[in-house]
């Protein structure tokens, strides 16, 4: 299947059959992609970062790790990661309140709205906004527990993550529009990313 586009600053969602592989491509090397997965039959069951960390015993998942739902069932298994392995499972999706806190006045594209927009294209409404799997997002932490926002390392463009669906699901993405903090490269210019389902 051809690559599908997650437009810069916007969201995209798709249906995925059990056993299919979702490949998320960091096309230009510095774009964060917020990622959600929902049980297609019951959207109140979703990929949960806190439940997944309790099983992987890691802050950053690796190939072989299984992401769990809020009911502790497998939903996605990591198969491959050629991106450099820097991802985040701690930070909530950006929203209008976050940008107001950062001093932005008026509307700003955000991942929370992008989730709703991507799901709406499939005729769906997410019942809530779970904490996302922030692919390609660099949130360094120190031994004292301090977190910092940092420009992501620049993996080779085309670096990707491959995830196998462990149930019939809806996958949703946001090409994060953050341009105030340096999470989308030193230039802070959000760009498109891509994915395929096979």
Tell me what the structure shows.
The chain is an alpha+beta fold. It is 12% helix and 30% strand. The relative contact order is 0.35. The termini are close together. The longest helix has 10 residues, at 111-120. The protein has helices at 49-56, 96-101, 111-120, and strands spanning 4-6, 11-16, 21-26, 33-39, 42-46, 66-68, 74-81, 133-135, 159-165, 169-175, 193-197. The protein has one domain. It comes from Methylobacterium crusticola. This is DUF1989 domain-containing protein. Residues 5-170 form the DUF1989 domain.
Shape: globular
Percent in strands: 25-35%
Q: Give the tally of β-strands.
A: 11
> In angstroms, what is the radius of gyration?
15 Å
How many discrete domains? 1
Q: What is the rounded distance between the termini?
A: 6 Å
Q: What's the mean pLDDT score?
A: 95
Low-confidence stretches: none
Protein name: DUF1989 domain-containing protein
Pfam family, one: DUF1989
Organism: Methylobacterium crusticola
Domain DUF1989: 5-170
């Amino acid at each position: 299947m051809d690559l599908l586009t997650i437009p810069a600053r916007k969201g995209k969602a798709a249906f995925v059959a059990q056993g299919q592989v979702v490949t998320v491509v960091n096309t230009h090397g510095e774009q964060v992609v917020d990622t959600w997965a929902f049980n297609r039959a019951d959207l109140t069951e979703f990929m949960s970062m806190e439940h997944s960390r309790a099983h992987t015993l890691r802050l950053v998942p690796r190939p072989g790790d299984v992401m769990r739902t809020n009911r502790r069932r497998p939903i996605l298994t990591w198969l491959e990661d050629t991106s450099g392995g820097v991802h985040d499972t701690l930070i909530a999706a950006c929203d209008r309140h976050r940008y107001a806190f950062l001093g932005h006045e008026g509307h700003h594209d955000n991942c929370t709205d992008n989730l709703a927009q991507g799901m709406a294209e499939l005729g769906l409404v997410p019942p809530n906004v779970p904490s996302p799997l922030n692919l390609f997002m660099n949130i360094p932490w120190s031994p004292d527990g301090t977190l910092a926002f940092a420009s992501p390392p620049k993996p080779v463009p085309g670096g990707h993550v491959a995830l196998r669906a462990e149930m019939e699901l809806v996958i949703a993405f946001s090409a994060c529009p953050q341009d105030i903090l340096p999470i989308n490269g030193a230039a802070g210019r959000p760009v498109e990313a891509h994915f395929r389902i096979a």
